[in-house]
Amino acid sequence: MKRVLAIAGRIGRELLRDKRTLAMVLIMPILVLWLLNIMFSANTTTSVKIATVGVDSQITKTLDKTKHVSVVKYDKKSTANDKLKHYKVDAVLTETSSNHYKVTYANIDPTKTSVAKAALKAAILKGKMTTMAKTSAALQAQLAQLTGQTAQTSTIKSSAGSTTKITNHYNYGDADTNFFSKMIPLMMGFFVFLISGMGMLGERTSGTLDRLLATPVKRGEIVSGYLISYGLLAVVQTIIVVYSAIWIMKIEVVGSVFSIIVINVLLALVALTFGMLLSTLASSEFQMMQFIPIVIVPQLLFSGIIPLDTMASWVQDFGKILPLTYAGDALTEIVMKGTSLANLGGDICALLIFIVVLGSLNILAMKRYRKV
Amino acid sequence: MNPSIDIQHLKKVFGKQVVLEDVNLTVKPGEIVGLIGPSGAGKSTVIKTMLGMEKADGGKALVLDTQMPNRKILGNIGYMAQSDALYESLSAKENLVFYGKMKGVDGQQLTSEIDHVAQVVDLTDDLTKRVSNFSGGMKRRLSLAIALLGDPDLLVLDEPTVGIDPSLRKKIWDELHRLRDAGRSVLVTTHVMDEAELTDRVALLLGGKVLAFDEPKKLEAEYKVPTIEEVFLAAEGELEK
Ligand SMILES: Nc1ncnc2c1ncn2[C@@H]1O[C@H](COP(=O)(O)OP(=O)(O)O)[C@@H](O)[C@H]1O
Ligand SMILES: [Mg+2]
Question: Per residue, what are the HEC states of chain B?
């Protein structure tokens, strides 16, 4: 254990002195978040088509007048839903009964979803509650709180006494949470993967690994030292990124932020062990860079960021061997439903298995440099 | 007394290249053995295979009465690799402390040993400097200091004096002689032939074999030449015939 701590301490010291890497790990993600946020909210050029079925003409008119929003009326629900399926429209609004609305968003492009959502909110509020001026602020807050949730039913009591109900559905993904539960862990995993891989690679190419292995240190102690030091860095990174995401992107989290951090750190440890393992196959930093697409692309494609329901079953099975699938699933549960860690045993187990297996493979891979 | 190193019929192949064909080598306690040979002869390979960093394709290596590879015995070996293998962003002292801990030296003992080895390699005044600011020679000296940590019974030094100026080189050899007189064993590789004169026995590694292995003076007498360098050339000439 003494040796493990000495190794972890040494790596920590090296990291603290490596300002470039520190910046990459701690500041870059925030920068990326911020840029993404600008991208997501820059909706000046986005135009949204909303299909309506049996909706009060007052509301459709208001909607149509809204900037970047056009309305197409359909008589039948099935036709409208068909258009939605084929991406001809971005959302379908139906009035299920008096003052009860159901909205289904295609949600292919989160920007369009948020534009449509805002427009609908405004139109329905304007049409139905002209006397709401005073309390609209409170309403807005209430609505905002609901935006992140699937099939969330909100009941809004107007001062006039009539009740308006909007039910939101998402054809694909889950509003902003998709970003939070998949993109953020992917991004953080990426940074940890890269720096731990580079760290291990440097240790190997500089000859220090050889020299380290010429002392009685156990191979497992080296891997543990790496896990502890880079793991701590991942914890710091996760805390910074999760809080800034919540703050910059204004993402509503139903569950506990602590649980989110735990899941992200577990994923980071998977990325860390994987980065170290892949670094044994690389002989230069450039070669390490070449692994990035191999690692990132499958996670992007198959972990559920892009909806898999409609894809061949082997594609869905493939998603099961990707750590991001489990982390994403757990994070979605926490963010949207407030599920506690105790009820996410399956996902946590899967991530732990990844860590243990990859960690052991690392210990084994080091046999290349010392036979005992 | 058993030899500190006993290498028998060591064989090592890289792909199709037979680097070591049949290497026999012993180092007795209280003896400095020089392993000499041209660059690429396989000197480093002998050491790495002996220490278990490469897998031998034949033969065996006993180090301190232990069949290698063996992890625990590494604590009693001071190994200095051909590359400096230092952590550049750490200071010299931090490097020494780290490697010391890896060798199992700790606390007060580590502090006093660091003082001693720093003195031997003349780095006492530079201990707090970062290694990235060191010259090549300073790095080599720090690397040697690390090998000396823990007062090991056996020192295995791969080209320890490359890039070190003559006065300090003498100082280092003085220290090696002092260690030998205290009963330690030293295996040192070099391609600087005049250094071979400073060893107790010289092994000539050529063509994957140890062609000659004896005291420098005896080798010179045997080949009827005045220096080890000429012994080496003579042996090389014989090999080509
Ligand atoms: N890991 C390796 N893979 C392939 N060939 C190697 C490896 N290590 C050394 N060699 C080859 O073995 C030969 C001896 O190398 P080395 O032991 O480093 O020589 P020396 O230390 O005497 O200069 C060289 O031809 C070198 O190219
Ligand atoms: Mg060499």
Answer: CCCCEEEEEEEEEECCEEEEEEEEEEECCCCEEEEECCCCCCHHHHHHHHHCCCCCCEEEEEECCEECCCCHHHHHEEEECCCCCCCCCCEHHHHHHHHHHHCCCCHHHHHHHHHHHHHHCCCHHHCCCEHHHCCHHHHHHHHHHHHHCCCCCEEEEECCCCCCCHHHHHHHHHHHHHHHHCCCEEEEEECCHHHHCCCCEEEEEECCEEEEEECHHHHHHHHCCCCHHHHHHHHHHHHHC
